[in-house]
Amino acid sequence: MRLHTSAEQAARSTWPSDGVVETVDERASLLRTRAANLDVLVVHVMLTGVDCEVIEPQELTDHIRAVRDRLSRALDPDRAATAAPGAESAPV
């Protein structure tokens, strides 16, 4: 994942167990990480606290979009009522 912050700042906002931070330039870094499943990777993305872009895997990008949509529906009940067929919904 490409983080839109320096490696120095990224190292302060991640745990060593999150992965390896590499310098790209003074304004960007890479976080190389792995996890047991896509949900854990989504949490890694959210907990960095910085803007980022997923480089790979494509499945993570798709999963982040699905989580984004689910959270949007949670904030907008009218949208949830008109969610696309097959959209996951479960009581919380």
Automatic annotation (TrEMBL):
This is WCX domain-containing protein. Pfam families: WCX. The lineage of its organism: Bacteria, Bacillati, Actinomycetota, Actinomycetes, Kitasatosporales. Residues 3-66 form the WCX domain. It comes from the Bacteria.
